[in-house]
Design brief:
Elements (H helix, E strand, L loop, with lengths): L6 E5 L6 E8 L2 E8 L9 H13 L1 E6 L16 H15 L5 E5 L1 H13 L8 E5 L5 H6 L5 H10 L1 E4 L8 E4 H7 L15 E6 L7 H10 L5 E6 L9 H17 L1
Parallel strand pairs: 3-4, 3-5, 5-6, 6-9, 9-10
Antiparallel strand pairs: 1-2, 2-4, 7-8
Helix pairs in contact: 2-3
Length: 258
């Protein structure tokens, strides 16, 4: 595919307003919306693979970068989950003319569920969710709860800890604001309602989101139809050719039913 230049969506209440970069492909049917992961961007492997699928099938497709990610404005460390949820809702509400299919990867899986909860009962209540290694409640369960006391203390006292990253030469800033804000959005502990069919894709060799987290999510989605696909040798990224084929098939199945 030819590389698209981004379009821009103004969000927030700052002066000048903050800009989100997005890419939009015209097509028919329920629009597919990509929600990327923590520090990922809209041109990552799985997002591009869905763009190719959407082009081949004439399907409307929207992807964007959260604040501080990719081509969007802002410093990553200045944002929290509340900001990224607001960005997702702004993109969906401004660019989707009918109920979307939300495809969320890692943190994007949590954001997809949070967005679906916000959109329940509205004209844009999602038609389906496809969640890839969904990192629900990751700031609390997969970060804070796993951190040694020394790192917790650094976050509380210094406001930030620079975590080495396996995916980038630059460390990832984990801020006190991110941890504290994440607690406003925790979903485990009560029923989670998506209000639509859900398909979860989860690798069983995922070092970042243990596969039992996916089982836990399925248990909490007690009122929605859910399919769980466990990939025995799958890692967190699920970006091999076979993984991509599974993702495209899951989205195609959701699209055909929407």
């Amino acid at each position: 595919m030819e590389r698209q230049l981004p379009q821009w969506l103004e969000v927030g209440e700052g002066s000048p307003p903050r800009r989100l970069a997005y890419l939009k492909q015209a097509g028919s049917g329920a629009p597919v919306v990509w929600l990327g992961g923590f520090r990922s961007d809209m041109r990552a492997t799985k997002a591009e693979a869905l763009a190719e699928w959407a082009e081949a099938h004439g399907r409307a497709y929207l992807r964007f970068d959260y604040g501080g990610h990719g081509e969007s404005d802002g410093d990553f460390a200045a944002f929290t989950l509340s900001d990224w949820l607001a960005d997702a809702l702004a993109a969906i509400q401004s660019q989707c003319g009918q109920p979307p299919i939300l495809v969320g990867s890692s943190m994007g899986g949590w954001l997809a569920l949070l967005a679906a909860r916000r959109l329940l009962g509205t004209p844009l209540q999602p038609a389906g969710l496809v969640l890839i290694a969904p990192a629900v409640d990751f700031s609390e369960e997969l970060m804070w709860a796993q951190m040694p006391d020394a790192i917790r203390r650094a976050i509380i006292e210094d406001g930030v800890w620079l975590r080495p990253s396996e995916y980038s030469p630059e460390p990832t800033p984990i801020t006190r604001a991110l941890i504290e804000d994440g607690r406003k959005h925790l979903m485990f502990g009560g029923e989670i309602r998506a209000g639509c069919p859900v398909h979860v894709l989860q690798g069983m060799r995922d070092p970042d989101v243990p596969w039992r987290q996916a089982l836990k999510l399925v248990e909490h989605l007690s009122g929605d139809p859910v399919v769980l696909t466990l990939v025995k040798d799958g890692d967190h990224r699920l970006s091999t050719p076979d993984d991509i084929a599974r993702l495209q098939s899951a989205v195609a199945g959701m699209a055909s039913a929407a």
